[in-house]
Amino acid sequence: MRASAVILLSALVCSIATRSWAQPSLQKESFLLTDTEAIGVLPADMAASGEVESAKWSSDGRYALIFRTVFRLSPNQLKGYLSQSLNIAPGETVITVWDNKARQSQDVWKRPFGGGRIMRVEWLPGTAIALVMVETLESPTEPGGRPRSHFGVLRVNAATGISKPLVDDAQGDAWQLEVSPVLPLSLIRYMERPVAGTVAPGGARVRAPAQEGLLLLRDDGNIGKRIPLPSGLFLYEVVWAADGSPILRTAARGQPGSNVVRKSYTMEPRTGLTSEVSPEPPLFAKPPDAVSVRLKNTSVEVSEKGAAHKVPFLWLRSAVPSERPVTLVAPNASMGAISPGGDAILYRSNGAAWVAPLMRLTKSEYARLIGQIERTGAIEKAKQLASALQKYAVDNNDTLPSAGTDVNDSISPYLKMSGVFEGFSYTFRGGPLSGVNSPGTTEMGFVTGPGGRAVIFVDGHVTWRSD
User: Fold this and answer.
1) With the C-alpha atoms ordered 390, 391, 392, 395, is the resulting torsion angle positive or negative?
2) Among 86-100, 124-138, 421-435, where is mean pLDDT lowest?
3) Domain ranges (residues) in the chain
């Protein structure tokens, strides 16, 4: 990290006067320390409001999909909803994309509340494409009829913010989404509705067997041709080879009591052609997690006059032995997830989704940053004290407090924040401002900091003076 970036980070301390519980300010305690580096949790950005239900990072950590519910209830609407005169609460089910590089979000899919449900999401590896299994409700076709549940796969392009449906349950009675862990490749396992059966002797109807197969979904949004399974076999599992190509595990439809014959097939991703294989090629194994930090949740119970409430806390902790192994991400936070690259934390606080960047520094960079932060803090406190002293003088006939009085107590009513007296020394003799010949060079006091002090002058300006 460059020195200019360290200075830029320290400037955050000046710009952040207050923070909500969801995003603490940058300070020394925002960093955990290992033997070689410091990892800091920077102030978070709100990625999505409303009631966030879940979220998932893309494989490269550039994007995150956030699933949330947004209610718009006025007091009258709430009363109507509770009295059942209003059947559906006004609101929406929303899919939001967070761009971790641009630090901004956009909504890519919406449905009226109660008209859609997110079931599963899978990112295609190495792309900005996500596949989302959704359930929607179609309005009844006849008065008094019941809504029909409708399942489908939604393709979301996080880079463009465009979403479109790919497949729905009109194409099969049952289906399941399978996604390669390596390639931008996905499959839909489907079971076609059987045609009407034949009538056996005696009048009994024989139901025709369901037909199983696969749909190949390409990363460009196109659906490949249907891939039927070899005759007489059913697909019981899809696994993935080390190169990310699918392996189809099948079994023969044998007679009761007979041995089950199992066969494996490889599939060529571009053409969908299948070939029997034995033995199976090496399977994909998830590599070990390279991120050196982990998240941990704790909770504390707070109470007031008989009312108790558990407050969750989200912590970042080092996975290796550390000098300072833990730092707080945020209080009142849950559902934390570290990005795959280890450069951000996505979490929920007060119902909303927040993203806090992570900054890694060498020990020397960290020491410079903390020194700058503490110097900046001393200067900010000195400015507040200078303003308080000037206001005191205005209210006391342009007279500053005498050195023998309790100066801190005298100027406390003019301060908005507590704790500014730490390190403060009042050095002025006191008396009327008219007796000061050179206000711009006459000291009133100072606030100590690392390697120097923030000096306060009678005219109200503050200057840093190194030791």
Assistant:
1) positive
2) 86-100
3) 49-277, 365-466
